[in-house]
Amino acid sequence: VLGHLDEARASLASAEGLRDRLSARQALYMDAWKNQLYDGNEVTSFRSWKMLADLYPDHHGANANLALAALSLGRYAEAERAAERVDVPQVELRSAALQLHGRVQLVQERRREAIASLREAMVLADGRSNRYLIGALAANDESAAAWGILMTLPQGNPGGWLDGTSLALSDGKLEEAFAGVDGAAARCDDVLRAVTDEAEGWGEGVA
To answer: What is the per-residue pLDDT for 15?
Structure first.
């Protein structure tokens, strides 16, 4: 869904036409997505996913979304329970489940557990690192390790620019931090210009 809201809503609209063919479990799943995509209220979204997860504890999609919703609301105990139900070997995207569990552990300041979960997530993702591991290592005063992970992130990632600046500040490298901010600002202008050009080109093509 992230970054593809219109496409997600279009898919949901198509699924609505097949509602009569859906099981009760599938219909509730669709309703939960409808609340999340159209309502925009985090509490409503949380309640929708919780109802589905309570009815079907083995529904990994419901539990994953419940964990995210609870995390955004600061309901960490509920986020943890939902994340634990997703963090099981039979989940196809186990790396994503572990990353989610690690995020929940990190916000509760269980840093070593978070690092372990996020490192395992990286292994299962064929070595692809993630920003949350950088944050966990930095919070655990493992700056050198955090820098090492940061260097493996894809270039041109705005999140990586922010992480680099944060790490530089935490290490007291003010000049490096300011240089990182200036560089990120310049690159953001380039990204915005490219997006604008693409949008203008698309508009001309359909005019």
So the answer is: 67
Which pairs count as long-range contacts for 73-82, CB under 8 Å and 24+ apart, including other chains?
73/42, 73/43, 73/46, 75/46, 76/104, 76/107, 76/108, 78/50, 79/104, 80/104, 80/105, 80/108, 82/53
**pTM, two decimal places:** 0.75
| CA-closest candidate to residue 97, choices 112, 107, 82, 75 | 82
Q: Is 56:25 a contact under the CB 8 Å cutoff?
A: yes
Q: Which residue has the tokens 């994340």?
A: 83
Q: How far apart are CA 84 and CA 136, in angstroms?
A: 19
Mean pLDDT over residues 172-189, rounded? 74
Cα 99–chain centre separation: 9
Angle of helix 94-107 relative to helix 60-72, nearest 10 degrees, comes to 30
Q: CB under 8 Å to 195, separation ≥6 — which residues?
A: none
